[in-house]
Specification:
8-stranded antiparallel beta sheet, single chain, 7-stranded antiparallel beta sheet, 261 residues, mainly beta
Length: 261
C-alpha cells in the first residue's frame, strides 16, 4: 500500500465519527472499544471511543463535545455526509488528497466552535510541529480555565512532545492554521482554511491524567474554527460566525508529508 496516500473511513450511523485514517500500514487514529458508543442519544454525556469526532457548536460545555457526535448522519450518492441538529446542519465532502470541505448552514449570525477532534495513536517519541512562539491558550488541567502563553513551552512542560505517561492532562489552543505530527519516520499534516473565520490548532495531551476515576492515555491534534474549547467563554473574535448568506464554509487538508499541505 502507498504510504503517501491517506484513506479516511467514516461511520455516519454513529455520529459521523472517522474510524480510520490510514497511510499504508500506518493507522493514525486511536480507538477505545467497548464503551457503548453505539447506544448514545442527543444530549448524552460524551462517550470517548477515539477516532475523529466532529465537535460543533462547542467542544467543552453544553452540549458536551457538541451536538453532532450523538446523531445519525446521512450519506448521499456523491459521498457527501450530512447531519441535522436543532439550530444548524453540517455537511462534509471528502475528496482526493484528502481534502474535506465543510458547510454549516444556520441563521445569519449563528456563533459556533468546530473542532476535528482527532485522537491519534502516537508513540512516546511523537512530536508536534507548529511555528514557535505563536500565541497559545493553555489549559493546565482538564477542567480548569485557560491562561495565555506561547508555543511550545508551558513551565517545564514541552507541549510539542508527547512523551511517556506521567499522570498529567493538558490542553492548548494554538494560534496557527497548520500543524504536523512526527512519529519516528511517519508524518501527518493538517491545514485549515476558513476565510473570515478565526482558526486554530488545539492540542489534547492526556498522558494518563484524565479522567480521575479511570485515567487512560489519549493524545489529540484538533484543527479548529474558534480559539476556545467552550463556546460560552468565547469573546466576539473567538468564535466562528455564519455570514449573511446563511452558510459558513471551510476546508481541512491532510497529508502524510509535512510539505504537502
Amino acid at each position: 500500500m502507498d504510504s503517501s496516500i491517506l484513506r479516511i473511513v467514516t461511520d455516519p450511523a454513529h455520529g459521523g465519527r472517522w474510524t480510520s485514517l490510514r497511510a499504508g500500514e500506518r493507522e493514525w487514529l486511536w480507538r477505545r472499544d467497548g464503551v457503548g458508543r453505539e447506544d448514545v442519544s442527543p444530549g448524552d454525556a460524551f462517550v470517548d471511543a477515539g477516532g475523529l469526532e466532529e465537535c460543533v457548536p462547542t467542544v467543552r460545555g453544553v452540549p458536551d463535545h457538541g451536538d453532532a457526535w450523538a446523531r445519525v448522519w446521512t450519506r448521499d450518492g456523491t459521498g457527501t455526509e450530512r447531519v441535522e441538529c436543532e439550530r444548524f446542519s453540517l455537511t462534509r465532502t471528502i475528496g482526493a488528497g484528502p481534502v474535506v470541505d465543510y458547510v454549516l448552514s444556520a441563521d445569519p449570525g449563528f456563533r459556533f466552535v468546530w473542532a476535528a477532534h482527532a485522537l491519534l495513536d502516537l508513540s512516546p517519541r511523537a512530536t508536534l510541529h507548529m511555528p514557535e512562539g505563536v500565541s497559545t491558550r493553555l489549559y493546565p488541567s482538564a477542567d480548569g480555565p485557560w491562561v495565555e502563553g506561547g508555543w511550545p513551552a508551558y513551565g517545564n512542560v514541552r507541549l510539542d512532545r508527547f512523551g511517556p505517561d506521567d499522570g498529567t492532562a493538558v490542553g492548548a489552543v494554538v494560534d496557527a492554521s497548520r500543524a504536523c505530527v512526527h512519529d519516528d519516520q511517519d508524518r501527518l499534516a493538517f491545514a485549515l482554511e476558513a476565510e473570515g473565520q478565526p482558526v486554530s490548532i488545539a492540542l489534547w495531551r492526556n498522558l494518563g491524567g484524565f479522567p480521575l476515576d479511570g485515567p487512560y492515555r489519549s493524545t489529540g491534534v484538533e484543527p479548529m474554527l474558534g480559539r476556545v474549547f467552550d463556546l460560552a467563554e468565547a469573546s466576539p473574535d473567538d468564535a466562528a460566525r455564519v455570514p449573511a448568506s446563511g452558510e459558513a464554509h471551510w476546508r481541512l487538508t491532510l497529508a502524510a508529508d509535512c510539505n504537502r499541505t
